[in-house]
Amino acid sequence: SRTVDPSVARRLTSGSFSDDDTMSCVDEVSFPRGMARQYMFVFQDVDDRELDASRFKLEWGEFEDYAVNYDVMLGQGAYGEVYKATHKPTDSECVVKTIKVDKESVLKLKQEIMMLERVKGGPCIVEYMGLVRNPDDDTKLIVFEFVNNPNYKESFRDMTDLDARWYLFRVLKGLDYAHSLGVIHRDIKGGNICYDPITKKLRIIDWGFGVHYVPSRPFTSWPGTRPYKAPELFLHYSYYDYSVDVWAFACLMGSLIFRRTLFRSKDNRHQMELIARALGTASYERYLAKYARPPFKLVAKKYRHLGEPHMGRGGFQVYVSSKTPLANFEALDIINKVLVWDHEKRPTASELIQHAYFDPVRHRDVNSSQ
Q: pTM of the full predicted structure?
C-alpha cells in the first residue's frame, strides 16, 4: 500500500516544518515522519508493476557496432571491468563495462539498466548508450559515453576554490535531477564521479545500486561504500530516503576540501564510533529515542553505545589548517548542516544548490555538454 496519513501529508505539503528545524541538529524528540522531505510522491499514481525490475525488458544492441580495446582497461570493480571502445557507425569514443560471469545476475542487470533509462538525459548523468552481448563468450557489456577520468584524488589535489564549487554544484544538480524522478543512487563517492579536469566534464556513474523511492515501501538492503554510508544504513532503518545520497555528498565534499576521508574506519562499528565523535552522542541518544517506536524503528542494539554518554557535537573545524585552503566558512556550513544523525534534519539536494557557497558558479550553464 502507498497510503499516507492525510495529516502527515498536509504538514509536509504546507511547509509547517521550518527551515531552521530542518537545517539543524536534533533538538527534541518528536515522532518521525517516515518519508522524504521532498519528491516523496513521485510514484503516487504509478502501478507497482512499473517499478518492478523483474518485469523490465532488456533491449540488446548490435555488438558489431563497437570495437572494444581490451588492452586499455579504464577501471576494475567487484562486478566487472571497464574498457575503452569505439562506436563504429559514428567513429566516436565510448566505454564498455563488462559483467563478470560469476557476478552475473539478470535481476541486478535489469535494475541497473532500468535506473540508467530513468535518469538518462539529466544534467551531469552519464549517458547510457546501450546493452550488447559478445557472441564469442556471451559476455554482457553496458555501453556509456567516454569521459577522460583521472584518479579523483589527484584531481582533488589540483582543484582551485572555484573548481571545487563547480564540481560540487554539478554533483548536486545531478542528484537533484535523479531525486526529482524518484531515484536514490545509494553509492555516491569520488570513484563514482567521472571528472575531466581539463574540459570540466562531469558525470555521475554506476547506477547499479540505484532504486526507486516509495515512502510506504520498506527497504530490505542497505548498500553503499562504508566511508560514505549514512548512519541509518548501519542501523538498518527500513524507510530511508534521498538523504542517504545527501550524506554521501557531504562526505565527498569533506574529502575534497579537507583532502582526507572524513570517516576512515576498519569496520562498521568503528565507522559509527567515528561518526559519533564528530556528531556527538547526546544528539545520537535523542535520535535513537525518536525512532524507538514502530513502524520506523531502528535496529540499533549493537550500536546502542558509541562513546561517552551525553557527549556534545565535535564538528569538523578540527580538520581546518593551512593545508586545507578550500575549507572556508561556507563549505564548513554545508558539511555541518548535512552531517547530522537525523536524516529528517538534513537539507535536500535542491536546498543545498541554493546555498551561498555556490553563488560564484551559479551563473554557469550546468546543462551544457560539459
A: 0.90
